[in-house]
Amino acid sequence: MKHYYQPEIETAPREEILKIQNEKIVKQVRYVYDHVAYYRNLMDKKGVTPEDIRSVDDIKKLPFLTKDDLREAYPYGLLGTDLKNCVRIHSTSGTTGKRVVAFYTQKDIDMWEECCARAIVAAGGSDEDVCQVCYGYGLFTGGSGLHGGSHKVGCLTLPMSSGNTDRQIQFMMDMQATILCCTPSYAAYIGESLAERGYSPEDNKLKAGIFGAEPWTEEMRAEIEKSLGIKAYDIYGLTETSGPGVAFECEEQTGMHINEDHFYAEIIDPDTGEVLPEGEKGELVFTSLDKEGFPLLRYRTKDICILSREKCSCGRTFVKMTKPLGRSDDMMIIRGVNVFPSQIETVLLKEGYTPNYQIVVDRKNNTDTFDIYVEFSKDMFSDKVSDMQKREQALKAAMRSMLGIGPKIHLVAPKTIQRSEGKAVRVIDKRKLH
Ligand code: DLL
Prior knowledge:
There is one protein chain. By secondary structure, this protein is α/β, with parallel strands linked by helices. The chain folds into 2 domains: 7-329, ANL, N-terminal domain (Rossmann fold, 3-Layer(aba) Sandwich), CATH 3.40.50.12780; 333-429, ANL, C-terminal domain (GMP Synthetase, Chain A, domain 3). It contains 11 helices and 20 strands. The strands form 5 sheets. A 9-stranded mixed sheet has the order 4-3-5-6-7-8-9-14-13. Helix 2 crosses helix 3 (37-46), helix 5 (106-122) crosses helix 6 and helix 8 (184-196) runs parallel beside helix 9 (218-228). The protein is globular, with a radius of gyration of 22 Å. The N and C termini lie far apart (57 Å). The mean pLDDT is 94. Bound molecules: 5'-O-[hydroxy(phenylacetyl)phosphoryl]adenosine. Residues 92, 135, 141-142, 212-215, 234-239, 243-244, 301, 303, 323-324, 327 line the site of 5'-O-[hydroxy(phenylacetyl)phosphoryl]adenosine (DLL).
């Protein structure tokens, strides 16, 4: 038996979804033009009027918004309604200049929470479930978003926020949590901590996890599923569009369905801005179709992915996006070679290492240095130096064959790399500080 939170829309025929999108975009562009002077100026400069937008096919005529626009318009320049109609803000971390502040009306919050409720139900959630939310609460959108979704589904909600792993485990066991929501790196840490306390995966009542907010590989999924004894589902979103729940995974676990009745997705060539045909890899761009407080049109996410409309066995008809395959600003260029952190994670986990690693890039004597620190597991340890050196050489060779360049590998003792309770810091690029 299949479960949906809003079956009429989640499984609607494509023509019906398109009809809803076409109706919404006409209204939304008019709304933004009338309420957001910053965007009106961009449209005027491009010579586009609201009358030019008659369907989603016309979206490509609209100007893009980027993080630079958000910075320039900070804090109120992209607000879509009077502040008195807004009931909340959320914000991303970062230094003041880079901070993104998004505004929400009550209608925006309801829509966002419904999107998260769809994700929870797609992961098998219902009012029978106990949903432990250990994304951070506060300015970060993760805690509030999944919390609101959990309420809508009717789960018993454990509003844990992030951190204090002992307490997380105590509540997980005592309250018999069945669904876990947090970043994948924190899920891996919880799995590790449970094992350390002598629990096996069967000892918890968890059945599913809803993990996102940072990149994670299929190898990491397998590791988490094993250590917690659950199915691990991906969830995607960003503060600029609302937060988690813009897209979510179903039982097929082959990409995330985008909530297309609220968000219109395009893939563009990040260099030219041209819209790419379906199936091609490029930068994801979102147009929110019905937001009031912070109604961004054609927002460039910098996330690189591929869209697919292939029929999904779950019955949902929403387009699917792959996991972000990196961000256009996440890619490192080391000695001229493009390197994505996800490639490194894939090699480490395939070679039997734990997901506890850190990548350090620096520049010395005009040459890039490239170091990977990774913990060896207890059973890998040998007190013979030559054994450990052999391991480092083998891992370096595996990296070289994946990346095209060989990093210096440092095998470090278990527990020496700092664990993350929210988004993990995987890369330290010291070159940027110069
Ligand atoms: O991370 C919202 C969120 C909270 C999503 C909880 C999922 C779960 P921001 O802090 O604004 O919002 O960061 C947004 O995080 O542009 C992606 O680069 C990255 N990201 C989010 N979800 C995923 C994911 C939240 N599932 C930025 N996989 C986005 C990979 C993700 N990257």
